[in-house]
Description:
By secondary structure, this protein is mainly α. Among the domains are: about 5-95, no CATH class; about 140-290; about 475-560, no CATH class. The protein is about 70% helix and about 5% strand.
Amino acid sequence: xxxxxxxxxxxxxxxxxxxxxxxxxxxxxxxxxxxxxxxxxxxxxxxxxxxxxxxxxxxxxxxxxxxxxxxxxxxxxxxxxxxxxxxxxxxxxxxxxxxxxxxxxxxxxxxxxxxxxxxxxxxxxxxxxxxxxxxxxxxxxxxxxxxxxxxxxxxxxxxxxxxxxxxxxxxxxxxxxxxxxxxxxxxxxxxxxxxxxxxxxxxxxxxxxxxxxxxxxxxxxxxxxxxxxxxxxxxxxxxxxxxxxxxxxxxxxxxxxxxxxxxxxxxxxxxxxxxxxxxxxxxxxxxxxxxxxxxxxxxxxxxxxxxxxxxxxxxxxxxxxxxxxxxxxxxxxxxxxxxxxxxxxxxxxxxxxxxxxxxxxxxxxxxxxxxxxxxxxxxxxxxxxxxxxxxxxxxxxxxxxxxxxxxxxxxxxxxxxxxxxxxxxxxxxxxxxxxxxxxxxxxxxxxxxxxxxxxxxxxxxxxxxxxxxxxxxxxxxxxxxxxxxxxxxxxxxxxxxxxxxxxxxxxxxxxxxxxxxxxxxxxxxxxxxxxxxxxxxxxxxxxxxxxxxxxxxxxxxxxxxxxx
Length: 564
């Protein structure tokens, strides 16, 4: 049964929870019709039509399903149906097994005929007529049959294949021109069938160019489809295409290889959607070897760097130019270029942070720390408006100063990181603490707390320093229960009354508005957890009693409270 494909993962999870909790009532199955009632915040009626063990249609009276979506109540009933079918099968096995029945099944099986038997016994004229009728109705099978008969495919055959791919895409896109999450998996699976069966047959026939052509067409078309790809199906299909390209290149002659190289180069021009280009780059850079392609790739990567520089979008320029420049540098190293020539190329592309970071790494690897320090200081000035880069530069400066034993410079970099660029990083805070004596640190830490941005969460630092009075202030000032729960273990013995009052206020504020069963369950779990705080059990029952009085008409809430 493939019914789970109809549901989004979080809907499926909620439906399973309903099923586990026994929320499915009045379940009946009769004549391929399933009916049930699912008890949630309200009772909802569910009807499901099946045929041969496959779901055909579903209905639920809840508002979510009214908008055309498949809801958690439907999923809960289908989980119940699975359980029902498994129980039926177990009962049949118990009742039906006996030596006599087993012999009857063996006799029945012996009488059954295979497809091969039927075809072998059929007159040739009937087989031909039947096959022609089938192939007229199914273009995909017709194309596959022609490939089976002859390895020599024509341009018309390729048009037929592409037409079938187009038809598959149109089928799933529908009127909305969008493939939903529920349909995406089947869509990708159907396209992969072309790769496994049709392209695979072409490769077996050593028809590499047609195999390459059809693979390319599928790769490009799926990249242009608008769909919910939360499952990553597009990536899986693209990886399959990479495997096919690699397989073809391993067997292809020089002419075919050159045709393939030109295709990859020509399609790294923006015609393929950006996130799919990475797969083309992977094949281009890793699969085309030898002096001829090395020189060609050097020229190509430099061309891409120059093209990127002409673009006006700042982020796009930095990303694309850096990416291609780094590829070019890798190729320079592969071709045997000396270190000075590579450094000169870095200088030509000095505007890009990624190139300077590469240059610094090379300097550090060679022990040229003074040069690396100068470049990092220069980079801090050049990229002063990019906090992420500044943080990375200071981390490397810290590392270098520590390596060369410049303790004062090392301390200054750590101080700046802890108070500015990486404020809130507990590991760096601890690293800074190790530099000072216990007496010195008490003063230094207060300077840090004053210097750090007021938007930084100081809770971890207060816990580290065992400043529980300040930690309590943080907890009481934070909305909700997240911070409260995070530091409850540290504070419960010292400040139980304050924590319980905070829980009381936050939980009662949450309970004012109605919620679903999952949220009620979370609230009850929080109530249950309060028992770990001294005096918490009394407060738990006090809040629960208040809710039972105030919200007695909330059936789901009352049921969850009943589990306390």
